[in-house]
Amino acid sequence: MSAWQMTLMNLNLISHSNSMEMMEHVKNYNIFLDFILLFFMWFFMMTAMMLPSVIPFIMMFQKINEERRKLQYKYVATFNFALSYIIVWGLFSFFATIIHLILKISNVLNPHTMSTGYLFGGILFILAGIYQMTPLKDSCLYYCRNPIELFSSNKIFSNGSAFYVGLKHGIFCVGCCWVLMLLLFYVGVMNLFWIVGLSIYIILEKYFFRSKKMNYISGILIILWGIRIFYVSF
């Protein structure tokens, strides 16, 4: 089933019954094959969502390397920095896939819309809102916004050191966004509108919403939304 069809189902624009034949083949999958398919779904989705926000920093890294090369200093391939960043999101995708399978096997996740019910969704939104206002979120966001701190505090003279800095930057970015990504379990894992919306919010948060007040405002709004969802479950 395409992402667009899943999005339409989450918006109730097409009925679940229309997709029954397309989903029938899932019964014949073994768990290993299911895991592989779900992992690549999450991995490509995370890569597509996060690459736009990190491209300016990849370009910054490349510019530093070009300046070093002009001055005949030792420089390293930018690919190592970008690759390690993507690997971090690959690890996140791995754990998200495990959660996905657990929810699917326990019948918490609807197999057609890839979304959970109101109770689980409300709790997820409330936790996400609380996390938005924590010092951990603020600390991760600081380093995610300012990779120059990593570039200047680490001697990047080898492929290994470039790989290491990319890992650290990726970890900080995951620390900023991991709870927001898990909201997809409620709104629909392949809901294109939410995927685009979250991507735009992450870019705005990273480059434009510099005030800590924005973390509190977004956190409170997400909590209120979660309370509303939680209330509907009763």
Keyphrases for this structure?
234 residues, mainly alpha, 11 helices
Describe the structure.
The structure is a single chain. The chain has one domain (3-232). The chain has helices spanning 3-10, 20-23, 31-70, 78-105, 118-132, 135-145, 148-153, 159-182, 184-187, 192-207, 212-232. The protein is an all-alpha fold. The protein has eleven helices and no strands. The model is unreliable at 18-22 (pLDDT under 50). It starts with a helix and ends with a helix.
Any chance you could write out the topology, listing elements then pairs?
Blueprint: H1 3-10, H2 20-23, H3 31-70, H4 78-105, H5 118-132, H6 135-145, H7 148-153, H8 159-182, H9 184-187, H10 192-207, H11 212-232
Helix pairs in contact: 3-4, 3-10, 4-8, 5-8, 5-11, 6-8
Summarize, please.
By secondary structure, the chain is mainly alpha-helical.
Principal-axis shape equals globular
Query: What is the count of structural domains?
Result: 1
- Describe the biggest sheet? none
Helix tally equals 11
Helicity level: over 70%
The radius of gyration over CA amounts to: 20 Å
Oligomer: single chain
Secondary-structure element string: HHHHHHHHHHH
The whole-number mean of residue pLDDT values reads 80
The assigned structural class equals mainly alpha
Q: What distance lies between the first and last C-alpha atoms, to the nearest angstrom?
A: 31 Å
List unreliable stretches of 5+ residues: 18-22
Number of strands: 0
Our estimate of the beta-strand percent is: under 5%
